[in-house]
Amino acid sequence: MKIYLFTLPLILIVALYAGPSYADDNQNVDPLEGLNRKTYAFNTALDDYIVRPIAKGYKAIAPDPLEQGIRNMFSNLGEIGNVVNNTLQGKIGEAGYSSARFLINSSFGVIGLFDVAQRAGLEAHDDEDFGQTLAAWGVEDGPFLMLPFMGPSSLRDAPSRFFDSLVDPVSAIDHVSTRNSLIGADLVTFRADLLALDAVISGDKYLFMRDIYLQRREYLEADGMIEDDFGDLDEY
């Protein structure tokens, strides 16, 4: 599960997948570039002054086993969305695979703190979301959108996040402080994982982020059946 509050300028670097540049096709891909850049600047300011400093502090004081355990727990919760979206896409085998991972890690892995399923040979696969489900149903992604707080998206994927929230167990928690604490923990843990990659961005940061996002979505919608020149960055 990934929480998209306070989008991070580097949130898309988790998958630096090779692909075509979209810079020469701005009118088709990014007709709202002017507005998107302003939103990106707003999100970047939030990251610079709030999210990144908190993530640095967390990284400095949290023991590595604790970080990994929290990361595993949220990944395990994300398997619920994987089950639902794989089923909707007709990928019954993948839905069963995600179900097995969730059941094993939720029981033997102590609510997912330990990835026992991976040790048993069931490695984590890429997350599935309702935007990918709509893509599988033939819905075009539409123009690129930069959303306040929530970050990179598209005309198709932006409203799809509402559906994803319906199958997110954290969103279903009635106790407000508990729910917000879990959302914050997920955000900080995810941002902390990206601190080492801050130096990767070069040139026009907005274009870099946009192209990486679009290439990443293309990769996910094709279930990884495109060339990946950068290798697996899951270790981050």
Structure overview:
55% of the residues lie in helices and 3% in strands. The chain starts with 25 loop residues before the first helix and ends in a 15-residue tail after the last helix. Strands 1-2 form a two-stranded antiparallel ribbon. A hairpin with a 3-residue loop joins strand 1 and strand 2. The chain has a domain of 143 residues. The protein is mainly alpha-helical. The protein contains 9 helices and 2 strands.
User: Major β-sheet, in short?
Assistant: 2 strands, antiparallel
Helix tally equals 9
**Proportion of strand residues:** under 5%
Strand order of the largest sheet: 1-2
Topology (elements, then pairings):
Layout (H helix, E strand, L loop, with lengths): L25 H4 L3 H29 L2 H25 L3 H16 L8 H4 L10 H7 L7 E4 L3 E4 L2 H10 L9 H18 L11 H17 L15
Antiparallel strand pairs: 1-2
Helix pairs in contact: 2-8, 3-4, 3-8, 6-7
